Task: inverse folding
């Protein structure tokens, strides 16, 4: 009969394509191997390169079966981007998991789709201060900014690796030597620096319980508004059917009628951006909309 | 070669297995999740293995087939839907058998991470009566490739090795070994075996049935059908990566691990069923083992608890056993569930496909799409693709739309360079032959981009990076009889729009070749980034229609709309956004005078 083995340690590294998620997980996997542990590392390639979500499961211990970590059993969640960290929080062990996240925002184009006036992007509103309170152990830092200060924005993953190193039971020397194997030879020194910046930061953070500041975006005033408040006024006598407004309308909601006059297809599609008004050589279009004073 | 134990991706291990088995010819067409296998094969010396990209999976299979005729071990790799393309050859190859051993690696994609469907290759195993091996981790993947060649030669059959996305893209520890050189056998002159005409095929078919019986007997005593003895209350029959999930959630269960899914080891399965009170089958996708066990008259549960849809995980396997009453319902701990932002894959910043689909929208076309990165133009904000079916379908789909006579919009087929060479040429010939009135946008980004940048005949570079003949698209297109062909720079939005308008006006088949390399491969393109002059930006969102990931909203607003900002580290300076900007507020970043 199979003996119930000691539970493996579960580390989940997440981020956006191109951030270096795989590097972090490769370093950890190699380190585990050199310590004679069983290790499995699972990721999904393919679409990841196209700016999508990237994640890498690393499991190590005396015996590892599944290459993926069951939800709620992640011991350490390392996020290279804020929203990606939030996305995977449900995988974090709610009793003793550690959450380490960069606070940098990479806002995908999909978050900026709403054309109604006053609409905000759909990027997560949760702030680091809020989240840190809700997880067993949480650390949020501006690793991207720290990396920039160091002189290479691509080292933010190594800074996070430094923080990760404080949560696992391996020698600093082994971390450093393994890291050296995976970074370009010219950047070995730089990455070692980044690694230690991460370790120093967490020391301070634990001492001062520092939390990264809230992004400016959250301070923005909202202008909630009902649909269709834009009035699109048209003077047919002045229109000569030049087609400029139809071609330039970003919402493609204008059309030329068979008698070469412009008409609006659906006023609800109009965002009142005024492009047609400004570009009309004959001043045949007027946009009217309420003015907001913040 | 490094023979130290090391973490290897499933695909790497498969390649290592092929090399160790003494394979001499390997061919493939790239397709996620199988692509890295041949890329890794190409890391071994050419004196060991001739490895080459094929124009499509059937060609790849035929190349392997030819090598097998010639007496060497051959290796062919494809994704699950690639086997549809190659299935014609498979169905004959199984009758012919082999001379040099042959392993076909097919990578399924349960969960549809990057495919158009989640078909189950084990169905093909049965249709073609080809033995199918099912590794669960990278070490087994390596071992099973080698075993595959032994079986292939012992039983005179091609052998399928089935991987899945999870296995292909998981790294686990592997002990690599040395290569066994196989002495080439030379061509086997045997028309009754090698020439599939009715008289010969009729003689070969009974051999398939004999082979199946022999293989069953072989697997009945093979150690790849492994019995992990445990509790006698219930037993689990499983295969592939789900085996690891079963071990994770039921460490004490009796498990029969099927290292092969065809033919099933009937004797072993019966013995297993007799030893336990209740039997479950945990198999991803179709209930194949389950149904065949039912046909054997065995009582078994499977798809009642474990879905026919998608990829399994420890969670889904656990919840299946909870539903079945084997595991107690674990109290779900409350974890934080946040949906922070949708982040689907998008076209890259500066992708030359963006302009092509902007133009398709501008001419209000009915667009028959195809398979590649550009399929991403089907979603917001471009939303420019009306249909996507399978590799190479776009052109003939457009022909059909034209012949139906119901379409009032201009009909455009969009197809990438690699897809065009894969299976876009016969439909183009068909379109000319049948006088269709369509416009074909050949989106030539000079690489197989979606799978991570593989070379193909249009790049003039081989898998091993050597120079070779480079296909000239204009000549191919003209040779099919197309009278109207123009090549245009897809970073020049105005020129592209004018050209497409002309092409649509042309009565008959018109081909527009858009001509800009992929921004990622083979070299990552970087240009001077652009910036938005915020005081002139009116937040009209015209540039946001491109869907470029370098563009996002800034905190500043104008009349209730966010102004736009450009992330300098992503922008490559393609200038498409500047070309659509009505207020001309997107300019190259001003350099500080020092």
Result:
């Amino acid at each position: 009969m199979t003996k119930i083995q000691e539970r493996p340690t579960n580390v989940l590294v997440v981020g956006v394509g191109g951030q270096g998620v795989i590097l972090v997980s490769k370093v950890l996997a190699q380190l585990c191997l050199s310590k004679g542990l069983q290790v499995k590392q699972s990721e999904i390639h393919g679409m990841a390169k196209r700016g999508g979500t990237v994640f890498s499961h690393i499991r190590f211990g005396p015996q590892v079966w599944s290459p993926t970590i069951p939800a709620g059993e992640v011991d350490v969640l390392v996020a290279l981007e804020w929203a990606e960290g939030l996305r995977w929080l449900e995988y974090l062990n709610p009793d003793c998991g550690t959450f380490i996240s960069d606070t940098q925002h990479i806002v995908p184009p999909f978050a900026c789709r709403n054309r109604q006036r006053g609409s905000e992007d759909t990027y997560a509103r949760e702030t680091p201060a809020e989240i840190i309170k809700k997880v067993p152990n949480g650390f949020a830092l501006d690793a991207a900014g720290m990396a920039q200060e160091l002189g290479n924005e691509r080292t933010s993953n190594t800074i996070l690796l430094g923080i990760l190193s404080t949560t696992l039971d391996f020698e600093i020397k082994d971390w450093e030597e393994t890291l050296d194997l995976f970074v370009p030879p010219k950047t070995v020194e730089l990455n070692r620096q980044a690694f230690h910046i991460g370790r120093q930061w967490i020391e301070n953070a634990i001492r001062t319980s520092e939390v990264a500041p809230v992004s400016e975006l959250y301070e923005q005033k909202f202008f909630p508004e009902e649909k269709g408040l834009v009035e699109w006024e048209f003077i047919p006598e002045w229109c000569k059917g030049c087609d400029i407004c139809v071609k330039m309308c970003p919402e493609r909601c204008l059309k030329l009628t068979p008698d070469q006059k412009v008409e609006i297809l659906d006023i609800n599609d109009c965002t009142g951006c005024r492009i047609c008004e400004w570009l009309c050589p004959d001043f045949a279009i007027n946009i009217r909309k309420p003015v907001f004073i913040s | 070669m490094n023979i130290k134990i090391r973490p290897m991706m499933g695909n790497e291990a498969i390649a290592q297995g092929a090399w160790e088995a003494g394979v001499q010819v390997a061919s493939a067409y790239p397709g996620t999740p199988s692509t890295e296998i041949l890329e890794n094969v190409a890391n071994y010396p050419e004196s060991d293995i001739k490895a080459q990209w094929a124009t499509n999976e059937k060609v790849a299979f035929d190349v392997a087939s030819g090598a097998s005729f010639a007496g060497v071990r051959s290796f062919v790799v494809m994704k699950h839907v690639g086997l549809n393309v190659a299935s014609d050859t498979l169905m004959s190859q199984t009758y012919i058998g082999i001379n040099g051993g042959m392993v076909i690696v097919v990578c399924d994609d349960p969960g549809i991470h990057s495919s158009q469907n989640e078909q189950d290759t084990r169905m093909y195993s049965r249709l073609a009566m080809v033995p199918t091996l099912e590794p669960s981790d990278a070490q087994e993947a390596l071992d099973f490739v080698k075993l595959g060649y032994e079986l292939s030669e012992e039983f005179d059959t091609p052998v399928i090795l089935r991987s899945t996305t999870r296995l292909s893209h998981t790294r686990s520890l592997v002990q690599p070994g040395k290569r066994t050189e196989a002495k080439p056998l030379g061509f086997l002159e045997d028309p009754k075996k090698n020439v599939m005409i009715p008289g010969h095929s009729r003689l070969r078919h009974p051999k398939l049935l004999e082979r199946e019986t022999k293989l069953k007997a072989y697997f009945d005593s093979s150690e790849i059908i492994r019995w992990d003895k445990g509790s006698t209350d219930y037993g689990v029959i499983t295969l592939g990566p789900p085996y690891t999930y079963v071990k994770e959630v039921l460490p004490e269960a009796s498990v029969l691990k099927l290292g092969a899914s065809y033919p099933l080891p009937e004797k072993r399965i019966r013995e297993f069923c007799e030893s336990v009170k209740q039997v479950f089958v945990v198999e991803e996708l179709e209930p194949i083992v389950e149904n065949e066990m039912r046909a054997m008259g065995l009582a078994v549960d499977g798809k009642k608890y474990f879905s026919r849809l998608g990829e399994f995980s420890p969670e889904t396997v656990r919840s299946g056993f909870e539903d079945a009453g084997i595991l107690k319902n674990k109290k779900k701990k409350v974890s934080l569930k946040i949906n922070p932002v949708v982040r689907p894959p998008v076209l890259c910043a500066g992708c030359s496909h963006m302009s092509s689909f902007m133009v398709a929208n501008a001419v209000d076309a009915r667009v028959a799409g195809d398979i590649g990165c550009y399929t991403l133009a089907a979603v917001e904000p471009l939303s420019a693709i009306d249909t996507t079916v399978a590799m190479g379908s776009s052109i003939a789909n457009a022909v059909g739309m034209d012949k139906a006579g119901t379409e009032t919009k201009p009909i455009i087929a969009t197809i990438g360079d690699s897809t065009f060479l894969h299976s876009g040429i016969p439909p183009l010939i068909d379109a000319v032959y049948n006088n269709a009135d369509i416009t074909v946008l050949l989106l030539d980004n000079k690489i197989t981009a979606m799978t991570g940048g593989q070379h193909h005949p249009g790049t003039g570079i081989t898998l091993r990076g050597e120079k070779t003949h480079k296909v000239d698209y204009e000549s191919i297109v003209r040779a099919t009889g197309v009278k109207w062909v123009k090549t245009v720079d897809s970073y020049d939005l105005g020129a592209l729009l004018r050209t497409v308008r002309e092409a649509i006006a042309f009565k008959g088949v018109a081909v527009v070749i858009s001509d800009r390399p992929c921004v990622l491969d083979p070299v990552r393109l970087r240009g001077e980034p652009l910036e938005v002059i915020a005081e002139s930006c009116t937040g009209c969102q015209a540039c946001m229609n491109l869907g470029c990931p370098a563009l996002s909203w800034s905190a500043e607003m104008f009349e209730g709309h966010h102004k736009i900002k450009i992330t300098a580290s992503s922008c490559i300076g393609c200038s498409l956004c500047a070309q659509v900007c009505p207020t001309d507020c997107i300019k190259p970043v001003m350099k500080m005078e020092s």
